[in-house]
From TrEMBL, chains A, B, C, D:
Pfam families: Bact_transglu_N_2, Transglut_core. This is Transglutaminase-like domain-containing protein. Gene3D superfamilies: 2.60.40.2250, 3.10.620.30. SUPFAM superfamilies: Cysteine proteinases. It comes from the Bacteria. Residues 162-222 form the Transglutaminase-like domain.
Length: 281, 281, 281, 281
């Protein structure tokens, strides 16, 4: 399935500032970037670099004097998702069998304090028979118990806050999902994306859980079809893969994000607890 | 029903220190203290005073040099409880009709941050038809979702912590109950007591909610019969009515607490959601 | 010194709502309300009542259907302040000598978690010789270390947040001052006021510390002269004496507050660490 | 300089459990492990693996039935430290020039919430002329303002707590140092070690800051000479490189740690603000 994605960010820079942006579609064996462009207006030199486990793609630019500028990314991307048939009651992968590269996704992180939510996670989700069922129950629980409310949280909000305050945006839903999964010893990573049919359009965040040898996608917001995502980055949480990290004094003036499909036969895919069919990117 | 209550506290004082203790049974129109005594060994002058809305009874003593001392209280107390027949679906008293002295029990307090738990409280308990049903559902929810675990919390633990960490002792159960009720605009106050059949024996804490013109007793720990309490104090939370407030450098060496009934026909009373019979002290 | 004070609050009520407002000038032996009026437009029945230790004056009104209304208070008030000459190095009043009505102002409260700031308070302020010097050092420390920044905090922000985040408004400055004083066993209470020369005009909050038998006024914001205050209320913290407590669904549309002196010879009074002259209301 | 290091951990396993331990001395171009051994008693199969940016060395073992076991590591290690002469007032490396592998050490992490301490860090440390001076001032500030107090914190304690509560152990001192440095845009990483002359003997934690192209070592506890460390691991904070991560039900029965030098001419090295000589491992 091919998607056309784009994002435009406009900033007013008040003092010399450095930007690190993470808005490029990720290139992976299962996601091909067919074409892309990045335009900065007025023209400013931009450095692209990769970092982190999945070689997330960042750009870095330095603004030395006050200016208002716009940075526009667009791409045509073809992610190939795989439908995984799961067997009921499949246990989480034993810690002893997890690859070293996966183990760190069990650790608590800035916005996903799994160490503080052990008892909650166990009492609510131990009863589900397998790893997939547990994570599905976690996303359902978040969906039912946390209100999606724009503006209710900020960049300092973490899973520990959300579990009490019960409101947030996609970032908060993802962090809470991650924290609860890790508390059950299921490795989980943050996933940022362009999302088809997301309304209102914005950057999206959800998460992947490591089950049966695959990183399966989960989205507690249920705001976009699971097969409508174009991956930007993976990280332990939003601290690793913020859309924009800004060092300086800057106002964000405007942000527009979009994701459309280029084909007609898009069939939205959501999880169904009865079929045990999961999706991997 | 008459109860014999006693408590003995033993402290090692390392430096000059002042103690404020709140261990006397409260005298109220419905609770008679038939006899009582307070013994300090070695003899130290103790000042008794009353303070706060219900005239809670405190003692204050000053130790000017290092010593180990023991303070022992015992009393025979006769609380008279009243069984209140409620009608189903009775609304919380409208704010406009609450007496000024009751209104302050709607405010958030140190250990009961009702302002931070509004959304949680509404989403879980708005659906219950009346005030009594709501508070009963709150105590059941706490009982089912928070583990009673000695030593899991400390004097700084608050309802906001407990709602995430899901473990605590009677004090934490009471604070969470108070916070959730206030978040629903039901006035609620902290209630400390000697409790019959509490095991292991200790000072107990639960709470009263103001419903239909009465302060009804609730206990989310379900560790003692609701009619087996000898009230020590009411307050907004444990900050008002700590068993011991100590200014100085002191080790608590030992604490023994007990409560026995003097009659044979004690019939334990617990709430039953079907009968709508409540208890007021 | 006579002051003319006024405040106008305008609300859009979306659903049936109840308001409790605390905007009346307090009547005390040292503060005379010479004349006052309260006008609600459109006309809505308002109930005035007093509550709390200092008999704070509240009004309560209930709006049963959607409406936009305005409530305007104005008064001429004559507070008489007393200048207290202190002796250097005067100790805090021993706990044993504090009146029962004062003791509760040593307890931690919702927004002033003195129990969590003991070590900070001791390490920074134990070294100052007397109670007044300590509290003055606390206000100076807050003034120098916390940035006054409108909009940086909200109604859930507490002293524990402010000590780390280092920004806030008058309410936050007061809460931090209160928490640090109580951590040093100096009784302290929240003080809301109309403030002369406050810029921009708004309701003001500062605090009183109990020293040498008097409640002395302190203001860590240094935004208004200490003798330019018209007291509205005392409380343990903002939980007791919020300007507006609203139960319902309401937008605040507008708020105007003012305080002018009616005399010409106003001489602003601020503390001077060398003179040890303090002010009591 | 050669060191002999050893650690022995003894656990009582109550239920099937998996351990991940991080107690091996790290092998780096500047740290040679001359010999080492790991003994588990009773014999249990142990798997060694490397993970993370510096290839930290972990062992993993699975215990399938209740047992008490002991794991003992010992090694002879030769770290070569480099003394770096700094020029006064050297700026932090501009963000634009930081290698991608270093950038992630600017992000907030589980125990080092640099995003919440920006204002505090700026107000206290912006005034120091260069990056080294700033970090040195941070370590001095922590040393002076935080009390080293065994048992005052636990595995959930973070820099945000410590900045208010002002007590902790080496782990907490390191986390606070890391958070404050990152808040000033100085990359910083957690550093665990065997430490010569540490008293009482234990695993040690301090941190490295990236200044002038080198990772310089800093220790806010001042409990061990800076040149007396044998590096175990680097990570973003303790979440990455816990000495022991345990999945299961286990009691730690005993822990012994030691570090001795094998040479006689050990000259302890500490920083001196006047000489601007720093140390890199």
């Amino acid at each position: 399935m091919k998607f056309k994605v784009h994002s435009t960010l406009e900033y007013q820079v008040l003092q010399p500032s450095t930007f690190i942006l993470n808005i490029h579609a990720l290139r992976t064996p299962t996601q091909t970037v067919l074409e892309e462009s990045l335009v900065v207006d007025p023209e400013i030199r931009v450095e692209e670099f990769s970092s982190g486990p999945g070689a997330n793609r960042f750009v870095r630019l330095e603004i030395t004097e006050p200016v208002t500028f716009k940075i526009a990314y667009q791409a045509t991307v073809e992610p190939v998702t795989q439908v995984i048939d799961l067997t009921p009651g499949m246990e989480p992968t034993p810690i002893m069998q997890l690859d070293a590269s996966v183990l760190s996704y069990l650790n608590p992180s800035r916005y996903a304090q799994s160490d503080k939510l052990q008892r909650l996670a166990s009492s609510k989700f131990d009863k589900y028979p397998g790893a997939f069922e547990k994570v599905l129950a976690i996303t359902d629980w978040i969906y039912e118990n946390v209100e999606y409310l724009s503006g209710s949280t900020n960049s300092q909000t973490s899973a520990y806050d959300t579990v009490s305050e019960r409101a947030g945006v996609c970032r908060d839903f993802a962090h809470l999902g991650i924290a609860l999964c890790r508390a059950l010893s299921i490795p989980t990573r943050y996933f940022t994306a362009y999302a088809f049919k997301l309304n209102p359009p914005d950057f999206h965040a959800c998460f992947e859980a490591y089950i049966g040898g695959n990183w399966l996608i989960f989205d507690a917001t249920k705001l976009a079809p699971l097969n409508g995502l174009v991956k930007i980055a993976n990280g332990r949480d939003a601290a690793d893969v913020a859309v924009a990290s800004i060092f300086g004094n800057v106002n964000c003036q405007n942000m527009r994000v979009g994701c459309e499909t280029l084909e007609e036969n898009f069939e939205p895919f959501y999880y169904n607890p009865n079929t045990l069919k999961a999706l991997a990117y």
